[in-house]
Model the fold of this input.
Amino acid sequence: MERVVENLSKDCLLPLLRERIAELSNVEAVLSKRLSRAPAGVLNVSPHRGGFQYFRVTAKTGRKGEYIPEEKMSFASAIAQRDYDAKMRAELQKLRGVLEKCVAKYDASVAENLYALLHPARRSLVTPLVYPDEDFVARWSAVKYAGREFDADAPVLMTARGERVRSKSEIIIADALFRRGIPYRYEFPHELLHAGACDVDVARGVGEVRAGRRDAGGSRGVGECRGGLRARGRKSVVVYPDFTCLNVRTRKEFVWEHFGMIDVPEYCQNMASKMEMYLMNGFCLGKNFVMTTETHDRPLNSMMVEKILEQLV
Done:
């Protein structure tokens, strides 16, 4: 499968550093508020008959301090927690200071800008370690591939981007991706190793059963596996997931499969086999794999699609 090749990964460190700084600041605020309510005094701990005794030392109690009985052990815990919180706040403040200095001096765009600032005559002669976002997206989108063919009697359903898809639900997903500027490829082929559980389906040709079609503009026939599987020998299979998408911020691809007939038992069997195969090939739900579903009575909700995209990119 053709890919855009870079020798230096996309620099995503700066957002993580800022996120960590914000997290440290929030925790510091919590600790400061807790310390303002903490009891005064110093906690002394003394060994006693195989255990420990606790004393609270103040200006009035002297060096040994006032004994804290078992029934007031929560008071000892509050002093110990205060001491821990104070030390932790000091350490977090130092760590935040280090990170803030790093952020102030760190320029994550150096590698990309170096290539972008080259004279066009030189840029055409250079293969950069990392492309600027615009160049990377253009190259990623320009990759040529052959998707699946449409049946002669299949309805013509078009997305806002002007491409043909197979269902109304795919239009919802494609248009949401397009609105958000998320590059995607429709039914881009991925060659995967197939799991043992998929052997039977591959052998009999998942995606070839046509019985029990639904409405012409909606989901496909019973037994037709979304994305389509085409066997290539005994160890691998070519799948055509509905959408292969690019997270521009991270330069990572993720696959989006929509399963539109999960109320049909045979369809669910094929879906389970395909999900197992994806997992064995490193596609993990919530990481680089998205799955949406629908039934005849519960169609795809466009708001759900938007929520998924908010979390991903």
Remarks:
- Residues 73-105 form the longest helix (33 residues).
- The chain has a mean pLDDT of 85.
- The radius of gyration is 30 Å.
